Amino acid sequence: MKAIFSHQYYALVDCNSFYVSCERLFQPALKKRPVVVLSNNDGCMIALSKEAKALGLKMGGAYHENRDIILKNQVETFSSNYNLYQNISNRVMMLLSEMSSKIEVYSIDEAFLDLSLIGEQELFEHAQNIKETVQKQVGIPVSVGIGRTKVLAKLANELAKKSPRAKGIVCLDCARYEAAALEKTLVHQIWGVGKKLSLKLELLGLKTAQDLCDYPNDKVLHKIGTKKMLEIRDELRGISCLSFIVRDKKKNIGSSKSFGKKVFSIIELKEALANYATRAAFKMRSQGSRAKYIAIYMRTNPFDRNSSQHCEGAYLRLEFSTLDTREIISKAWALADEIFLPGYAYKKAGIELSEFEDRDEYQLVLGQKINWSAEKLMDTMDRVNARFGDNTLKVMACGTHNPWKMLSQMKSQRHTTHILEAPKVRSCI
DNA sequence: TCTGGGGTCCTAGGACCC
DNA sequence: TCTGGGGTCCTAGGACCC
Predict the structure, then answer these.
(1) What pLDDT, on a 0 to 100 scale, did the predictor assign at position A5?
(2) Number of continuous H segments (helices) and E segments (strands) in chain A
(3) What is the distance in angstroms measured between the alpha-carbon CA of A411 and the sugar C1' of B1?
(4) Tens digits of per-residue pLDDT, A225-258?
């Protein structure tokens, strides 16, 4: 007889090797084959199938350093295709929200579910149902971890992914299971404990999650990792500290990318910035916001030891918030003029918008006029681009040739978001 | 040749005020 | 020689996440 807790429970549902699973969805022949998905610019590996990991390939590893292994083992390689991944993610999240009273979408491939309406005896069965339903209706394999707090649910999920016996589900619904899980988890594997914090914890002699859970000295923990560290320990003890966040709007929105080649000219760099600004401004308008704060940065390639380095940022705060892509570009360009240094080989640039106000409800200053024509123009531009594809309408500052543009040589089709790239089905009748 | 991009939260310490 | 103290607000930057 197991001692069952009487508590609130959370589930963490995480899609297995999400980007790889999305690619496999449209190419079933890739099942059981080694597959990797590359970051923007085809720089490093950001998603790997189990089979690819077994070859010794690592998450975050540089593509060019592992090309030999990849070619020799015929590893299927894809450039990232975010249109596809976001669309599949939306389908998964929609389904999950139907299976829970409350859902916190934590990232593109994982979500916390509030299980307060599920009876304790039914938790495991519910996890099985979630797993099977997502697999059947969207075609994406997921792992489910259940625990009394978010940190415990996350920990359960890690074990669900690792242990072959668990078959993708770990439910910490009794003291014995919970203790075993804490004992098996090392401090650096705890959610919220990164490299720096785990080093400090290890210096204290704490090796496992159980050690941290049992550690009584609040003062010492606070010194190591402030309030956050204490919250993590309490969550491990089953005391809920991290709130369930139903994310509404983002507080800052950025866009930055590495260039496909070295950029020496400010004209090309500004063109890239105009494109990034366009994207950030569009994302901001989609959530109904307007920005007051604009920051940009540019940097050379830190890996290139033979070239001189320059990395600098600049920002400004507008008198009145804006949602006008043209205004954002012109401010970004002015900032670029301030910090750009000729003679350097720039590799990356980015823009960030923040200090948002609500698009339609914000404080006007005496004498301030709303630029209705700009608002209408932006709305029209967004609608046209939504209907006919990104960049159908754009500001000329974005240029047309974009020689700095990143490489993305192995991208799959936008199967679900672009009509010309949808899979074709042939009838045999 | 080639090493991601996009976020959140927290806090120390500076600036300023009385 | 002695040179206040307490409070608030802001922000850059650190740490972490996927």
Answers:
(1) 66
(2) 13, 12
(3) 20
(4) 989 999 999 999 999 999 888 777 898 999 999 9
**What is the spatial distance between Cα A351 and Cα A336, in angstroms, rounded to a whole number?**
10
Those nucleotides of strand B lying less than 7 Å from any protein Cβ are 1-12
Is the pLDDT confidence value at A128 over 90? yes
For residues A292 and A357, is the Cβ–Cβ distance under 8 A? yes
For A412, counting Cβ atoms within 10 Å of its Cβ (0-12 exposed, 13-18 middle, 19+ buried), the class is: middle
CA of A355 to C1' of B18 (A): 30
A106: nt with nearest C1' to CA: C18
d(CA A51, C1' C9) / Å: 53
Q: Give the confidence band of A361 by pLDDT, cuts at 50, 70, 90.
A: confident
CA nearest neighbour of A127 among A156, A89, A164, A84: A156
Binned at pLDDT 50, 70 and 90, residue A65 comes out as very high
User: Cβ of A300: how many Cβ atoms within 10 Å?
Assistant: 19
Answer yes or no: is A81 CB < 7 A from strand B: no
Measured in residues, chain A has a length of: 429
User: What's the Å distance between residue A317 CA and nucleotide B15 C1'?
Assistant: 18
pLDDT digits (tens, 9 = 90+) for A206-228: 999 999 999 999 989 998 998 99
Contacts of A109 (CB under 8 A, 6+ apart): A14, A15, A18, A89, A92
pTM of the predicted model as reported, rounded to 2 decimal places: 0.90
Nucleotides of C under 7 A from a protein CB: 11-12, 14-18
A230 CB and strand B closer than 7 A:
no
